[in-house]
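Margin note from the TA: students keep mixing up input and output lines. Inputs are the sequences; the output is the structure of the whole complex. Example:
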Amino acid sequence: MAKIVCLGEIMMRLTAEAGTRLNQASQLAVYYGGGEANVAISLANYGHQVSYASKVADNAFGQAVKNHLRSYGVSIDFLLSGTGRLGTYYVEQGIGQKATKVVYDRQGSVFALMDELEWDLKELFAGIDVFHVSGITPALSGNWRQLTLQLMQAAKAAGCKVSFDCNYRQTLWSQEDAGEFLQQALPYVDYCSAGRLDAIYLLGIKEVDAEVAHYYQAMQQLFPTIDVFFSTNRKIHSTSVNELQGTLWFEGQCYTSKNYGIDPIVDRIGGGDAFTGGVLHGLLSGKAAQETIEFATAASVLKHFVNGDCNQYTEAEVIQFANSDSAKISR
Amino acid sequence: MAKIVCLGEIMMRLTAEAGTRLNQASQLAVYYGGGEANVAISLANYGHQVSYASKVADNAFGQAVKNHLRSYGVSIDFLLSGTGRLGTYYVEQGIGQKATKVVYDRQGSVFALMDELEWDLKELFAGIDVFHVSGITPALSGNWRQLTLQLMQAAKAAGCKVSFDCNYRQTLWSQEDAGEFLQQALPYVDYCSAGRLDAIYLLGIKEVDAEVAHYYQAMQQLFPTIDVFFSTNRKIHSTSVNELQGTLWFEGQCYTSKNYGIDPIVDRIGGGDAFTGGVLHGLLSGKAAQETIEFATAASVLKHFVNGDCNQYTEAEVIQFANSDSAKISR
Amino acid sequence: MAKIVCLGEIMMRLTAEAGTRLNQASQLAVYYGGGEANVAISLANYGHQVSYASKVADNAFGQAVKNHLRSYGVSIDFLLSGTGRLGTYYVEQGIGQKATKVVYDRQGSVFALMDELEWDLKELFAGIDVFHVSGITPALSGNWRQLTLQLMQAAKAAGCKVSFDCNYRQTLWSQEDAGEFLQQALPYVDYCSAGRLDAIYLLGIKEVDAEVAHYYQAMQQLFPTIDVFFSTNRKIHSTSVNELQGTLWFEGQCYTSKNYGIDPIVDRIGGGDAFTGGVLHGLLSGKAAQETIEFATAASVLKHFVNGDCNQYTEAEVIQFANSDSAKISR
Amino acid sequence: MAKIVCLGEIMMRLTAEAGTRLNQASQLAVYYGGGEANVAISLANYGHQVSYASKVADNAFGQAVKNHLRSYGVSIDFLLSGTGRLGTYYVEQGIGQKATKVVYDRQGSVFALMDELEWDLKELFAGIDVFHVSGITPALSGNWRQLTLQLMQAAKAAGCKVSFDCNYRQTLWSQEDAGEFLQQALPYVDYCSAGRLDAIYLLGIKEVDAEVAHYYQAMQQLFPTIDVFFSTNRKIHSTSVNELQGTLWFEGQCYTSKNYGIDPIVDRIGGGDAFTGGVLHGLLSGKAAQETIEFATAASVLKHFVNGDCNQYTEAEVIQFANSDSAKISR
Amino acid sequence: MAKIVCLGEIMMRLTAEAGTRLNQASQLAVYYGGGEANVAISLANYGHQVSYASKVADNAFGQAVKNHLRSYGVSIDFLLSGTGRLGTYYVEQGIGQKATKVVYDRQGSVFALMDELEWDLKELFAGIDVFHVSGITPALSGNWRQLTLQLMQAAKAAGCKVSFDCNYRQTLWSQEDAGEFLQQALPYVDYCSAGRLDAIYLLGIKEVDAEVAHYYQAMQQLFPTIDVFFSTNRKIHSTSVNELQGTLWFEGQCYTSKNYGIDPIVDRIGGGDAFTGGVLHGLLSGKAAQETIEFATAASVLKHFVNGDCNQYTEAEVIQFANSDSAKISR
Amino acid sequence: MAKIVCLGEIMMRLTAEAGTRLNQASQLAVYYGGGEANVAISLANYGHQVSYASKVADNAFGQAVKNHLRSYGVSIDFLLSGTGRLGTYYVEQGIGQKATKVVYDRQGSVFALMDELEWDLKELFAGIDVFHVSGITPALSGNWRQLTLQLMQAAKAAGCKVSFDCNYRQTLWSQEDAGEFLQQALPYVDYCSAGRLDAIYLLGIKEVDAEVAHYYQAMQQLFPTIDVFFSTNRKIHSTSVNELQGTLWFEGQCYTSKNYGIDPIVDRIGGGDAFTGGVLHGLLSGKAAQETIEFATAASVLKHFVNGDCNQYTEAEVIQFANSDSAKISR
């Protein structure tokens, strides 16, 4: 299997039970997750050798992050720790027509405050096939914009493929800042998770129609080094009911997965990361493009039925789910 | 904002988890609520100065009621306590096609046994804009029928608007008794929550068609002092899935809200009170009629997604919900 | 009411909460159940005198089984215990599009290891109207195939009606073995729970169309002593949403119940046993055929809304449910 | 083994977790229990044929009582049900130096309101060895004082031994009323649970010293038909730490058990009933007096380590505990 | 009763169950508390009119703080809110010989960042009898050192008594800084919670012996305006077992309470605040000095048996506890 | 740090809450553990490179074991999996004077059924400093007696030190069988956890007095290759209160740790393994003998305050605990 480094922030998530508002909660469930960490866990579950590079607080919660990642077989050799705090966020779970609400408390985290790269980049990328990072990381600070570029450049230089998930978060930076960063970063990218909205609002591609293939093509013209684009199309009927369909642009062609109903959703957080993990696994294990997009979408759908940020399924389970057409008790 | 007095019984509610029958339950969740108390909390959440008048047992559960009301900013200056018991009821939560089942144990409560008004009515209604009471109160005893009338008369005399929610409960009194009471009480009422079934079965208005506007008009002819009628039209697909639409009769016109699907319902109890609270807030804060009915219906729908009897949303949250058309994670 | 003996294995079931995979679970909910035991409890709930014959471990879990059965009024006079283990199984609850997954750990149980009948059969069947057993029992071992036949023969000889639920489980035996057993056993059977798939795959009846009546007729021709066949037709939209309809072949005619939507399912396990319990109750209490199939299907549907293997409803509650057409709060 | 009828009220108990005051509780644990019911369960656990006579509400909680009793093998053939309520009480669990606090809500229960005996007394006592009742029953109402005497007389007439547990509760009646009742009732009693305080305050025996033997002797002189007295001596160091020692007056001699430390107490409620159950079992199974008091005290101590009102131990477990002198893990 | 303003930070506390380390916790219990807020709640429980002045985040957790305070009847008229975060801390509950461990995450809270007083001090102190603040507030920042002095001066000027609880926290500031602040602040103080260690390490009083009276005397000589000192003497046998005794210096004399064993401790956090609340109540309600110290110590002991930061007991309950000498079930 | 291989069975443990008997439990808490696995985790927590060799079921519970071990950084490169079951055991937690009770269901596990070594022993022991195994492994079957000897011989041959924990379990084999095995195995052992009772009952050393030093000396004379013996002396006051003291025989001298009171015990299971882990860490990290035994005993004591089988403390935390003499809140 492949060797992968994922890098980014990982946070503690505290969640109230559905039906309880955050201000009423007398108990909060604890999870740990972050975009790149969730991708790392997916890939480790599929059998790859994955290392997660980040920095956490040198307290109980930093320790919890280590145990969390190791339990899935993700290496923490490049997980630094230092004095400070772990970013935190609080989730009021939506249900039915009521949306999920997130309260962030991530400012001043030990990761966000990093102002120069604390890893030996040679060591970090030695023998690595893919380096994966998301658009949340450069959004954390001006420093992180520079550091992310440095990481991409070093990864490229070391012969890694660079995987990048746009993952635009409006509470962290403006569309202008994000767009500017993308212009600098995408030339280093090989695999890019980006969709129609990213194309229009971040890259300034003219809105034409709803067909994502058009935008993939336009993005590839802008950034010819990227040969794989992927994203999901999510129709939100309610917080509890979504439809999900994945698309993959590969060697100039657009592949579309089955369209899944997800009803009811248990926990949507991490669904996109499960999708990215699935696409990377398809690419790294030599699956055909159609097989890859079916696998990735099935992995993402499965994630919605399990609590916590990360995908809990093996490759065999994802494939079985992708191929099944009913939900019989398996006994 | 306005000054409001709500008066009625408040009870302890003990609820088994959905999927567990009451006779199997080894744990019961505790809530406190009552029709008028729930309205009081809604109005306090919207910023009004609300006082709740009632009588509770002078034991731990009476204390719990006080803490419950105060936590929302409802004044307990007129909440009496005395030796006796707090009314109790038990809820077996329905789900899907299985209906919710209620076991009442409310007889002989310290409130129900009250045989003369224990408040100084001058003090109670001094400076008050609206006095709100529901049809559950006169249903508790012959005494309470008289006491409720006395309260309405005193409120009117003190210059309050009187708000009345029919809230007919067949286990407490007959349609005849309720109808007779309404004939006496409605001449004192300004704002009246009553629907088509109340019109037909309690007020003897002839059934014509399903259009609620017809019945509003007929009721207003009977009771010309009432210039606002309101009610919801609920379509019950199952215990978990309802549709809800609010209507408001205001200055001779009928206003209808959006029709909401609610799927899945977390806790329906208090949904009607949240609606009444929303209408009163609209009227008291000078919202237009259409805005009022949209607000009230949105407030009621939101209540269905939160455990416990009372609305947990601010005015801003209700408005945001009323204006949103999806259930995206807000982060 | 009637006197019934049910015989079979009863196991401990350990269930993770929906949204948690078995390998993640830090808590497991405990239930006890088994096909025949569930039928026994249904029948006891309806007022019959029911005895459950089985063998359990002489440890805490055997004791738990005794308490479980007795709590419903099922007699344990024929419940043996001995050194060994109680069969166990683990349930990962599915939800939405994710199927439920069962991990069995039932091998070597004190019941499965029984190699000769340890009851005095005269005593066991004295005064008994119906003996009920399912196809899981002969599937447990070669010994149990013989022992099940002995039991049926002795029951017949004692003047009991024999009720048999095919309940084919592919993890326990092959279709060939099951078919062979059925050829030997069905001549002793009076009431038989078997459906279209059983007819085709176990009894070798030629597949013609989807109409179950055809297969009932064909089965009755093969086994003329059986005059009652019954089964449910379940359409699985997802793990959370099923449709269910019951059919009953009685005196040469096929009766079909209302078709129910079940949405959402709380716990499907035991749904079939609740159906069988309902049919037997209809037959034993002299209900008409249509009434019987409506009762049995309603009982099965209700089971889906309650956690645990066994039906928790009285006859009156099932009838009320069968006759209701909405899910209003009953207060 | 022996045949026993126990008669009395059984209530629902709702308990907050230690460390949570009743007015703060958002969850309450549910138990069912009552003095005589707890004795009935102890005796059934030891293998006797026990019937529990009482009257419960014909609702979910009456049903729960039935399931509770049956699960231990107690017969409910004489458990009546009718319209009304089940008595309820609430427990705020003490811990350490904080005392446990009980809030009763038992007035007007369907049992307390009984005004004439609703059993056929011939049938009730046919073939019965012992009839057991406690001082809580006559304390419930003036009617029950008469009814309890009628029951004792009928039991005596039917040839039963009468067992009576004084169980004086000051919130239910005065010492005078209790004393007067005892003068009428004790002439019918054979086995009497009463201690030094009962002797002094209820029977007017002069206080001499702390030795319970003196009071047993004095009581026996007053009521010569009683030949067995028993009680525990409890030293309360704190709510969590008690010492407990049992004494038994048998054939003119006083027997004293080991003195047990109980640290920490899990749930003290029902500890006295477990003691009474142990004494009756000793008497009914022909144990020697010393063996009986050791058994009864051990049973009572064990009860303190288990949640809920009733003893959960078999005869073998109690004997093993009485004989052990350490608390090693038994594996 | 008296009118009191308490001012300080209030935080969210997230607690793992005893026996679970913070890094293992999958659930955290939520409480809200802070030194001055806990005192405010104690005083409100005893019937005083208490206002809590602070600043919280304008998010769900700020809302939760408001509901928390109001539920006890504490006025939030001076509780500000603004953009930012609420201070947070995490508690790993010790038990037995294992100490409790706290992980603070309070930096950058909206309260700590306040750099000028945002209240109208005239309004804040109008008609107020006592202003209470603790040494945690000036420890939060250099700004807060100045602001605390300004508050004390304004309170004095408005005719309030000033109550100050030293509450030295070594993780927030050095002994030097604290000592320097005390020199400036104590001249404005009337009631001072400070003990032997504060005298020696913060005020530089020479260590002589263990008798606290000596240090009280010495402190009063230094700060003659203070006429009341008080503190507890805690002997820590283990995390679960402490002894606690209160002392009060009043009008030149030292009063000592009973010495309490506390075994086992449920939650020690807030025990000191309950003591301070009790002393202030004694002073404000005109209790004699000995009565005051007995009341305050009993209140503190009771706090240890209830989860959460704040005292849950009324005056009557504290007095009953102070006077009781056993822990019998009160029924 | 050192490289260690631990080998043995690991099981699923299902535990009822204290105060609930196993037959009453409706929820069971899930832990994974085994003597050698617990030692492995301790050593990994202290920073060593530890590999755990075992065999688990290839189902959800085998997967859970993998995640469990990896979360602590234990390598699972030698953790095999295959068709079958994972051994299971059930724990009824004792409290106070009530002993903990274990129900084993471990027979026929995929590990116990192993009949030849399935590892490449060269690979397994390559570069390894210590091989650790316990007396539970040879007790599992006749095969395992042989296989354990083979493992020890191969480890020795590869240059590893062999660590052996007698861990005699009477339910698995007789004293005779264990003694016979020890005679064969101990000549290969370097570090041996064995105490006075092992010496007397398994090795036939004559009982002289209570001093463990005597027995260490005698054992060393019999097995001169062993130069380190260690064990704890546990005084059981109750299930909740124990005293614990460690002793270490090192280079002909006996070292004794502080004597700890443990009160109350949260979970005793794994306390011995934490001790062994601590001794091995002391030996492997070059601590002096007295320091080693203090460290190991402190580690064992700490284990008693945390749920689950394995030690959750770092080296720094153990040392801090060993050096502390109070249980103050550390904030």
